[in-house]
């Protein structure tokens, strides 16, 4: 037998996939293709009408009309209890249909890889409508030590689906029910069966090797095509789009491993030659769950781990004597290893196989988090101008081969036209923004979602009383003159924006990024306090941190000194950017600093249609949940809610929690909403000087990036509002971006001349929208590169024009930019808070006996103990105005001084 690791070592039992579900839900965030996200019962209201505001135009959309079958579809349960993954399940059912019982399954039925099988005819399964099979995928081998694995499959008829009911739904005469959703799922399964047998697939996408790019690190990028049958008003559509996947580089596993580490000599993969335990762990994480072929016996195996020693140094008991792995393969498999000191891989059976005896087949999808240094290459490969994207989509439509697929023809699905739909759209009027009354240009109307800060002062500028500049770049690269220039330029730009800088000369301190960072901040604050003792005993109100280019870790440490800096905000900048900074750079920095200090950059013009809802006291919420990377364990999800506290809905406070890993519902929603209600009351009474009656909101708008059924009912039932003694009108809006509708201007004169995209403010609420429910697509930002992606809104209340204008207006109040953004600011803010939330979480705090399954329901108290709360001094400010791609400063503490230092800090 092959060499094996110790018993019970390695991964646990494989996870089973969820049972088959509909690809489209009547109460879902229609247009979101996230598995499991956004599916709710239809608390979304019927469409009240179509919008009329704005300039009309026509655009092409990557949707193609199909004729749905007239004949009934038969639905079967396909139960295979021993199956593992979707791909393997499909392989088992394909073998059943094409080898085991060809007569019964000709023409072929289609199968979703989980539990659902569909046929366009009655399968001859006998009077009970059920049949059981036992079979193996390989013929018996008399020389094998063990017989081949036997699979037990049971096929049972469960329903007959009448497409006529689907016609009624498309016409808006019937609400979505389980039969309709299952029929749509059957059509989706039918159109993907042919391509799933020919190409690598991932959910609703398939990928082709014709256009691929090797980006190093053992990874290739492949271009592919997304496909989904989607209902729309009075028609059924197929949505086809371009997508991208990371693939493992094909070829010898030895070459893949060398590419991962960018090595040229296979001997460097040997622990004897410096292949460290850290490198072993990195390689194991990269290869885990990768299916490879073992060339010594031509069998497929799944990698679960990587050995800590080379094949020559790994020994095991073989027939009562110790034998090393290299000798085993030489004597038992007649394979003399060329690199016997290189590590081995441990596969699902526990066997150890030298990496030089494994091969990676083409098209193995890598479902892991993207390497940080490969992000730019991924973006460059994926971006396409609209015209190019639509031209490539046509190639994908040809690969779907509607006119050549026997399965599609058997189900009666026909493509009406291979030309993309031309649909009506409107460009909404751009909302004007107001700045301070002393500005030379008090009101600005953005052009295609963009404007600038020239001749403008912040609507409510903040005051900088005392401040500190801490520099982590070495002094001969960033000397005293450079520091003085930064101070002068930043101070001058702040005053030009209307900010009051009371301390002309801040404390400037050079520090070592490898040193004791908490002590450095404390000492800098004490120097600032001593520098101007007559200005009061309060410490600094702002830390400016200047970092070298490679100081991401230091960047993350400066946001977490609540007990040391008393919640003082920080602003990090790169030294090289400071040295060549211009007015635009300083304006961009101040767009973040001003709201962090409690200021307001700009407001919507109260006379504008999009701000008309603010005539009543209103709170606007944004909520999001961020999950850990796929295949990760012991890591929680983070839920965040932000809410406006001012009358202009531009100043937001946040609440965030750690919760069960990969759970979409916000578990602490009520408590987080109550926290925001208290902040709203306090701001209204203390800052805006309103009476308790005036400070009671009359309307609540809740924007959610993906939503679960439980959340809708929590907010709808008004629990948090009742606890706060509020009784507002509640409007729920689900905002989704993970859909695949894209637009190409029908008339080039209507397109942005630089990017070729549709103009900012374009809204679509006809033809491709839901047959019954109130939804629309809004492209709120001006595209710069690639093809712009609209946001999809599913709504519960309000008229079409007012809500579309409101949504567009809220995309213009994102505080840290002078461009409109792709989703409303409160949703964007909630996403930023989620990004920062992982820096509040200390995995070493809390119960010593906590289960390693951090995300478990039984560990919620432990999660709360591990999660550090926001410092109260920052709870009322927009502390989350940071770059979303990097989160400020705790990584350096993790790396340099460990969590022991972090435990004495709360978050600023």
TrEMBL record:
InterPro entries: ArgoL1 (IPR014811), ArgoL2 (IPR032472), Argonaute_Mid_dom (IPR032473), Argonaute_N (IPR032474), PAZ_dom (IPR003100), PAZ_dom_sf (IPR036085), Piwi (IPR003165), Piwi_ago-like (IPR045246). GO terms for molecular function: RNA binding. Residues 1-38 are annotated as: Disordered. Residues 542-842 form the Piwi domain. Residues 252-362 form the PAZ domain. Gene3D superfamilies: 3.40.50.2300, paz domain, Ribonuclease H-like superfamily/Ribonuclease H. Residues 17-29 have a biased composition (Gly residues). This is Argonaute-like protein. The lineage of its organism: Eukaryota, Fungi, Dikarya, Basidiomycota, Agaricomycotina.
């Amino acid at each position: 037998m092959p060499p094996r690791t110790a018993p019970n070592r390695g991964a646990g039992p494989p996870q089973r996939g969820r049972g088959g579900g509909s690809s489209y839900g009547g109460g879902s965030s229609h247009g979101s293709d996230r598995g499991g996200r956004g599916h709710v019962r239809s608390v979304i209201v019927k469409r009240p009408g179509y919008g009329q505001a704005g300039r009309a135009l026509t655009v092409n959309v990557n949707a193609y009309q199909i004729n749905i079958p007239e004949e009934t579809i038969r639905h079967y349960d396909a139960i295979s209890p021993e199956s593992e993954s979707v791909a393997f399940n499909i392989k088992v059912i394909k073998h059943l249909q094409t080898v085991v019982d060809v007569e019964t399954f000709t023409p072929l039925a289609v199968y979703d890889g989980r539990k659902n099988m569909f046929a366009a005819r009655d399968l001859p399964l006998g009077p009970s409508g059920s049949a059981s099979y036992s079979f193996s995928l390989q013929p018996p081998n008399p020389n094998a030590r063990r017989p081949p694995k036997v699979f037990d499959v049971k096929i049972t008829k469960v329903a007959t689906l009448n497409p006529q009911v689907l016609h009624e739904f498309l016409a808006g005469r019937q609400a979505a029910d389980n039969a309709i959703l299952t029929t749509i799922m059957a059509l989706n399964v039918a159109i993907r069966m042919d391509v799933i047998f020919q190409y690598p697939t991932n959910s609703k996408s398939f990928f082709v090797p014709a256009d691929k790019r090797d980006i190093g690190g053992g990874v290739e990028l492949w271009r592919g095509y997304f496909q989904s049958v989607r209902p729309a008003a009075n028609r059924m559509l197929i949505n086809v789009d371009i997508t991208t996947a990371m693939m493992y580089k094909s070829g010898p596993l030895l070459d893949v491993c060398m590419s991962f580490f960018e090595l040229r000599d296979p001997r460097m993969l040997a622990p004897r030659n410096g292949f460290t335990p850290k490198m072993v762990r990195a390689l194991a994480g990269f290869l885990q769950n990768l299916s490879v072929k073992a060339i010594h016996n031509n069998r497929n195996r799944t990698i679960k781990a990587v050995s800590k020693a080379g094949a020559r140094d790994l020994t095991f008991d073989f027939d009562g004597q110790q034998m090393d792995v290299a000798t085993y393969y030489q004597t038992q498999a007649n394979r003399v290893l060329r690199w016997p000191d290189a590590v081995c891989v441990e596969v699902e059976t526990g066997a150890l196989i030298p990496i030089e005896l494994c091969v990676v087949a083409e098209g193995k999808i890598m479902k892991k988090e993207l390497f940080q240094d490969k992000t730019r290459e991924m973006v460059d490969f994926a971006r396409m101008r609209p015209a190019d994207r639509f031209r490539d989509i046509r190639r994908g439509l040809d690969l779907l081969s509607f006119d050549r697929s026997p399965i599609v023809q058997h189900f009666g699905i026909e493509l009406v036209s291979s030309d993309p739909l031309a649909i009506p759209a409107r460009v909404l009027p751009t909302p004007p923004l107001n700045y301070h009354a002393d500005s030379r240009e008090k009101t600005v109307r953005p052009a295609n979602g963009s404007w600038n800060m020239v001749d403008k002062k912040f609507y409510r500028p903040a005051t900088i009383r005392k401040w500190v500049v801490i520099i982590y770049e070495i002094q001969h690269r960033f000397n005293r003159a450079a520091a003085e220039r930064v101070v002068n330029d930043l101070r001058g730009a702040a005053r030009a924006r209307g900010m009051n800088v009371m301390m002309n000369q801040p404390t400037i301190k050079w520090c070592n990024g490898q040193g004791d960072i908490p002590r450095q901040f404390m000492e800098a604050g004490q120097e600032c306090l001593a520098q101007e003792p007559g200005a009061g005993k309060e410490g600094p109100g702002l830390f400016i941190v200047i970092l070298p280019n490679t100081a991401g870790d230091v960047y993350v440490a400066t946001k977490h000194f609540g007990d040391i800096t008393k919640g003082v905000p920080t602003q990090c900048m790169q030294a090289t950017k400071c040295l060549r900074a211009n007015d635009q750079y300083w304006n961009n920095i101040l767009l973040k600093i001003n709201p962090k200090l409690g200021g307001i950059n700009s407001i919507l013009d109260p006379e504008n249609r999009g701000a008309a809802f603010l005539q009543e006291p209103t709170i606007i919420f944004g909520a999001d949940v961020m999950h850990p990377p796929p295949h990760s364990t012991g890591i929680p999800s983070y839920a965040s809610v932000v809410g406006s506290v001012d009358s202009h809905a531009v100043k937001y406070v946040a609440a965030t929690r750690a919760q069960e890993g990969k759970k979409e519902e916000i578990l602490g929603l009520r408590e987080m909403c109550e926290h925001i209600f208290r902040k709203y009351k306090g701001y209204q009474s203390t800052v805006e000087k309103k009476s308790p009656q005036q400070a009671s909101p009359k309307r609540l708008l809740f924007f959610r990036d993906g939503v679960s059924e439980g959340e809708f009912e929590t907010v709808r039932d008004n629990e948090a509002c009742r606890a706060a003694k509020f009784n507002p009108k509640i409007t729920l809006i689900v905002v989704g971006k993970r859909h695949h509708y894209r637009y190409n201007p029908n008339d080039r004169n209507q397109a942005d001349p630089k990017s070729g995209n549709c103009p900012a403010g374009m809204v679509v609420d006809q033809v491709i929208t839901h047959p019954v429910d109130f939804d629309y697509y809004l492209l709120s930002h001006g595209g710069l590169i690639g093809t712009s992606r609209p946001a999809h809104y599913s709504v519960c209340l309000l008229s079409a024009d007012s809500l579309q204008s409101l949504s567009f207006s809220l995309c213009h109040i994102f505080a840290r930019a002078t461009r409109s953004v792709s989703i409303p600011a409160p949703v964007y803010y909630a996403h930023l808070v989620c990004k920062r939330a992982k820096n509040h979480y200390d995995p070493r705090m809390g119960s010593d006996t906590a289960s390693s399954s951090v995300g478990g329901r039984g560990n919620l108290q432990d999660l709360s103990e591990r999660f550090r709360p926001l410092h109260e001094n920052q709870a009322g400010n927009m502390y989350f105005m940071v770059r979303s791609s990097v989160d400020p400063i705790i990584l350096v503490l993790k790396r340099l001084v460990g969590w022991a230092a972090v435990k004495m800090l709360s978050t600023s």
